[in-house]
């Protein structure tokens, strides 16, 4: 039964909800019902929200697959914390104006590291645990 992935997914869901509410609030304040209406702040918030939605689900799938294949809990926790930190740093960095580029880069580097390590680890564990063909 998965243990680490649900905790990481729950924390990331709360961050996603926070990013969603930021977009909704600005829509209400600026009376923007669709798209960004050329509003630079709305564009920024939409991209922060969208970028999170683009990268996070795939990383969580990798985390779950690793957990289901029996990866050590501490390795999953490290990857999960890296993902949470990376997505948080990226969201904060891109949300600022002017944008502190080093936070955006650090956030994406951590996210990419989770995707790379998670992907390679999934392949390795799958090959190590492959069924014996008779």
Automatic annotation (TrEMBL):
Transmembrane ranges, per UniProt, are: 6-25, 46-66, 105-128
Q: Name one Pfam family in it.
A: MAPEG
Q: Where in the cell is it found?
A: Membrane
One GO cellular component this record assigns the protein to is: membrane
Coiled-coil intervals:
none
Q: What is its main location?
A: membrane
Keywords, in A-Z order: Membrane, Transmembrane, Transmembrane helix
Report the PANTHER family cross-referenced here. GLUTATHIONE S-TRANSFERASE-RELATED, PTHR35814
- Name of the protein this chain belongs to: Membrane protein
């Amino acid at each position: 039964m998965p243990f680490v992935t649900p905790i990481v997914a729950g924390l990331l869901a709360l961050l996603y909800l926070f990013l969603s509410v930021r977009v909704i609030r600005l829509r209400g304040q600026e009376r923007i019902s669709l798209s960004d209406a050329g509003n630079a702040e709305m564009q920024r918030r939409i991209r922060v929200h969208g970028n999170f939605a683009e990268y996070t689900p795939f990383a969580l799938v990798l985390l779950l697959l690793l957990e289901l294949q029996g990866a050590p809990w501490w390795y999953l926790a490290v990857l999960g914390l890296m993902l949470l930190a990376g997505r948080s740093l990226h969201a904060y960095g891109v949300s600022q104006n002017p944008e502190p580029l080093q936070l955006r880069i650090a956030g994406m580097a951590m996210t990419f590291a989770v995707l790379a390590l998670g992907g390679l680890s999934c392949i390795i564990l799958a090959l190590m645990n492959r069924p014996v063909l008779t």
